[in-house]
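Supplementary Text 2. Reproducibility record for the structural model of the 378-residue chain.

All settings were left at their defaults, and a single model was retained for analysis rather than an ensemble. We include the record here because the model underlies the residue-level annotations in Supplementary Table 4.
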Amino acid sequence: MTAPGDRAYLDWNASAPLRAEARDALLAALDRFGNPSSPHREGREARALLESSREDVAALMGCEPGEVVFTSGGTEANNLALASLAAGARLRCFAAARLEHPSVLRPLEALVDSGWEARWMPLGEDGCAEPFVSAEVGFGVLQAANHETGALQPVGQFRGEAEEAGLPWHCDATQAWGRVPLRAGDLGCATASLSGHKLGAAKGVGALFMRRGGRVEPLLLGGVQERGRRAGTENLPGIASLAAACACAARDRAADAAWTQGLRDRVVSAVQGLVPLAWWNGPEDPARRLPNTASLSFPGIDGETLVQALDLEGVAVSAGTACASGAGEPSPVLAALGISEWRVRGAIRVSLGPTSRPEDVDRFLNALARVLPRLKGE
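Retained model, structure tokens:
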């Protein structure tokens, strides 16, 4: 066992530590107690902070400030996007892939339960979808990067097919912002989601890019906040922290990507030296992966058990998305790829961030060398 402060945190895809800049912005915003919808001075001050924050978020997302809708996080952003696309669809049919995050898959499955037709795109063993869309579907969905394998999806190809078919589509880009070059305006999608705590903002805040002129089907009914797209008084402290995190991510993206990729490649190289039969899930080409993510499978090992053993050694990793943690089932993403069962059940995810240290990698590798023989009964 290790002391509470003596740990290595390698689960950034689940949640990033709060950035110092985001903490400062959040605390400062607590003094802006006015309601942004109120006309008096206190309200105007709150409104000014809200709109300046919208500009910072839009700068990272590569869109106009008016195309940013603040939400409670990536889940709400995904649900709002899908509800809006479904409401405006000319056909009750969608095209998507089964590697999406649960906050995308569950709403799509709910549409199927209500009578919609699903056209599931084929998946390659490398963790990438094989896009196909046509005028016979109402809308499409494709994430920018996978939350478990880090596989960058072929959004450029998907955009071309969608444009040819005149098809609106949604992109869950929560794992991609701040890690790879990405602009909503270049994606060609109708909507794209962002989650604050993936970027080092406070939890409970996110944003949705909604292309100007697109139909909106609000999930929350009430006031006319967010231009009638999302009712409820805005979470100003959370939004301020999001804006600060977005500004940092935009400023440091290239340097952060180079840093995390170096650490990730060291993890993979060392693991393959320690366990020659270990498997790196995802595309073989590193350029087709998020720079910070490695999905690793170990023969003869249960991934959940390995995660727990590493936790006792002071190392935080995951066996898949945090939203499905504790379900007792293997990764639905890896299972959907049709790969060997041992790779599905023996997988863990290592994900790094800008403040990850070489010492964190050392602790992980040393802990792995200790626990693997024990778990194998050697």
